[in-house]
């Protein structure tokens, strides 16, 4: 009897302890659920990962985008959106946002842009170039999320256009433009030229080449013989002697200078006997192209203009 009485006396205490433990467990579970709900993006939000591996979440499609890089303006133009701010003067070209677009200019050096200009444009998203504007992230994200893009091929540019469609709620327009550009490149690739080409830029003594790991270089590799590997840098330095070793049939040249009256790069190199001996130079097949479009465009509009020039000169 003593034993039974003792067990009976202990039973209420055990039940109370069990109840308390259950209550604590339920409370902990509720706290965990609340924390999970708080961490979970709101319904209808958009989450993407940029080219630096950073996850970007928007509560709703972006409508006010500041562009620190021209591929941003290019993609927004494709989906019918005007940026609220721009950095590259090419944005004002009628083929992109246009001269009458209501946009704020972002001042400052490349990679050292004036964050105040960005803030005054009140964007809900900022798009920049990875490898150049990474250092702005902390300052920019005090005002808006920063998405950094780094296209290494024309296919990356197409993928970015689709991402912009997702970020801005214009998926249908982005898909239409992206698919149309892919079809154009694939059609051009079916008639791939056997001519050897080169896209180069700079000035005498400081020349560079668009390797196959750049949007322009990868595009030329689709439609022509383009033997320019990346090495350690997709935008590789090149000497005239290296160009002569390949002796390309057609050279697309971009002269870089702040002056609009820049002498064509081919003419600036004409005094070099090695350059003068190139087959393309002798045949008049050094084609001067728009440096801004070829060097900074990177998007599908710009690459379409590149393809226009390439197809025109490969068919001659």
Automatic annotation (TrEMBL):
Its main location: other. Residues 1-22 form the signal peptide. Keywords: Signal, Transport. SUPFAM superfamilies: Helical backbone' metal receptor (SSF53807). It is found in: Cell envelope. Pfam families: Peripla_BP_2. The keyword Signal applies. Residues 64-316 form the Fe/B12 periplasmic-binding domain. The keyword DNA repair does not apply. InterPro entries: ABC_transptr_periplasmic_BD, Bact_iron-sidero_bind. PANTHER family: IRON III DICITRATE-BINDING PERIPLASMIC PROTEIN (PTHR30532), IRON(3+)-HYDROXAMATE-BINDING PROTEIN FHUD (PTHR30532:SF1). Belongs to the bacterial solute-binding protein 8 family. This is Fe/B12 periplasmic-binding domain-containing protein.
